[in-house]
Amino acid sequence: xxxxxxxxxRGAGKPFEIAENAQTFIQALVKYRxxxxxxxxxxxxxxxLSFGAKDYLKLNLDEANLEKARGEERAIRGALQIAASRLLxxxxxxxxxxxxxxxxxxxxxxxxxxxxxxxxxKGGETAQLTRAVRxxxxxxxx
Length: 142
Fold this sequence. Notes:
- This protein is mainly alpha-helical.
- It has 2 domains: 50 residues, no CATH class; 78 residues.
- 71% of the residues lie in helices and 0% in strands.
- The protein has 5 helices and no strands.
- The chain starts with a helix and ends in a 9-residue tail after the last helix.
């Protein structure tokens, strides 16, 4: 349901499914309350709706990819903040979202630039090694 709402806000998604999604969600909450006696599940919603890879260590990323993941997550959070704040008419919060989006984008650009520099360094080393190891042609074989 959350993913469909986000897609609808950005101009895609299936708006005709929102009412059915909401009804299914409410029915599930009612059934849960009947079984559990309360709605303690509500405090679990943030974890259920989390999209980010907060536990970066489990991803086994090198430093450059770790920075890219963090930058991407930050940019997405900023974009979501902008969308939600625009829907609510909260201009101050829109600005905060814009700042977070910009910071995430900058972090991504820096991570990509660092990866490019690293590839260049490795490429230069490889080229030097290749030249050093390449056997010289013997004039009598030409």
